[in-house]
Design brief:
InterPro entries: Calcineurin-like_PHP, Metallo-depent_PP-like, Metallophosphoesterase_sf. The protein is of the alpha/beta class. The protein is built from 14 helices and twelve strands.
Length: 442
């Protein structure tokens, strides 16, 4: 089954589930439910249309409504799915309490809330004397009278259940869950938009490095990734990033891929402020997968024109604070389709193993290929820190480190959250970030 068909099936099932929980379970039959069904179909078409057409650059006006719906859809799905277990448990509990109600006893509103009201003894005695004889010569119960009148006491003898009462409770529960899910999803998306469009935060982290000379202790590397210049990004996005990096007095700046979502003609002016980044020993760049969607060769030329050194399966020896450090960079895995993939043997050929080496690689998973080359630290991005919690749990299935510091096959890896966003302009639990790594000698 192709990717497009799989995507269509998944999107269709998600929207069917949302329609069932938000529309069919909460609205009576008639035009409101029909209107909800039409809306569900249109939104189901909007989601994949946005992903395809906005990426192609043909209908940029669709980006805001389409991507915001994707974020809202995601959080509606998550909240409703989480509510399924307590919802089912509450329904079972209600039914169990109804079954314990004695047959023939009419459920009053107080009983619906769990309070069993008993008639005073005197009233019961009077009622018993007023009842006609039962079938066996005893006193007829209220249930017998109801049965003789053709009005059964419930939906089964001895169960005390009331279908209409159960239906009203199910409706109340469904509407409560829908309201809660809607408010929670809208709140999460609203908060996430504000976070995503806001300025990036600075994350400071100290990295121990066994081979680092004492003279180089405290070497600073500013790491930024996933800037994702595009139609939804604020106009001053690149300038904010540049200002933040320049404020930390870095020795080296590493831009580890996914700079843009568009062509040089569309976004060249937006990227121009990055040419004003200041670092003692230079600013370096490696490709991410999105460069290959946006025309990687023109962007490589443009980045170089801005005075940023592009490492394409290369390394450069840097003399920092009286010591030597190898800075290596490999192309992204996405470049393989374009004949421009990562080449680790070429990158590390002839390297002096006594020198510490820092590897720039867009995806954390590339550390598995770097393990045999004695890499002391890999800096990466790509994951966006998950971007929208709990999506980080799915990212973890593909990437060994989602955010921050970790170890992959013995290689220390630091993953920055990224300074931008992809798709929905929403970040929840993973704020935009520029990272400052301070290398520490033993």
């Amino acid at each position: 089954m192709g990717f497009a068909a799989t995507l269509a099936i998944v999107v269709g099932l998600i929207h069917w589930y949302l329609y069932k929980r938000l529309v069919r379970d909460t609205l009576p039959e008639g035009w409101p439910r029909r209107a909800g069904a039409v809306a569900a179909v249109l939104l189901a078409l909007l989601a994949p249309t946005t992903l395809v057409l906005v990426r192609e650059g043909s209908v940029q006006w669709l980006a805001w409504p389409g991507f915001l719906w994707l974020a809202l859809m995601f959080y509606l799905l998550v909240v409703l799915a989480v509510l399924e277990v307590p919802r089912a448990a509450l329904l079972l509990w209600w039914r169990a309490r109804r079954r314990r109600t004695p047959a023939g006893v009419t459920a009053t509103p107080a009983q619906a809330d769990g309070a069993v009201q008993a008639e005073p003894a005197a009233q019961q005695a009077v009622a018993a004397q007023a009842e006609p004889p039962g079938p066996a010569g005893g006193v007829a119960t209220k249930g017998d009278v109801a049965t003789k009148a053709g009005d059964p006491p419930g939906d089964g003898a001895g169960t005390g259940t009331d279908p209409a009462h159960d239906a009203s409770r199910r409706l109340l529960l469904a509407r409560g869950a829908a309201i809660f899910a809607g408010l929670t999803a809208a709140g999460a998306v609203g908060y996430g938009v504000r976070t995503a469009l806001g300025p990036p935060q600075l994350d400071r982290f100290q990295v121990p490095m066994a081979k680092l000379p004492r003279a180089m202790d405290g070497t600073r590397i500013a790491v930024v990734s996933d800037i994702h210049l595009g139609p939804l990004v604020p106009a001053n996005h690149a300038q904010r990033i540049t200002d933040l990096i320049n404020s930390v007095d870095a020795d080296v700046v590493a831009i580890v891929g996914d700079l843009v979502d568009g062509t040089v003609e569309e976004l060249g002016a937006s990227a121009a402020p990055l040419g004003r980044i200041q670092a003692r020993h230079g600013t370096f760049f490696v490709t991410g997968n999105h460069e290959y969607y946006s025309g990687h060769l023109p962007w490589i030329e443009e980045v170089q024109r801005l005075g940023i050194r592009v490492l394409r399966n290369e390394r450069e020896e840097l003399l920092v604070r009286g010591g030597a450090l190898d800075l290596a960079g490999v192309n992204d895995i996405g470049g393989e389709e374009f004949g421009d993939g990562p080449d680790f043997p070429t990158t590390f050929a002839g390297r002096d193993p006594s020198r510490p080496v820092v590897l720039m690689a867009h995806q954390p998973v590339q550390a598995r290929s770097a393990a045999e080359y004695g890499v002391d630290l890999q800096v990466s991005g790509h994951t966006h820190g998950g971007q929208m919690v709990p999506f980080n749990l799915l990212v973890k299935l593909e990437q060994p480190v989602v955010s921050g510091y970790g170890t992959v096959d013995g290689v220390p890896v630091y993953v920055t959250n990224g300074a931008g966003f992809w798709g929905p302009p929403v970040r929840v639990g993973a704020p935009p970030q520029v990272s400052l790594l301070e290398l520490r000698a033993p």
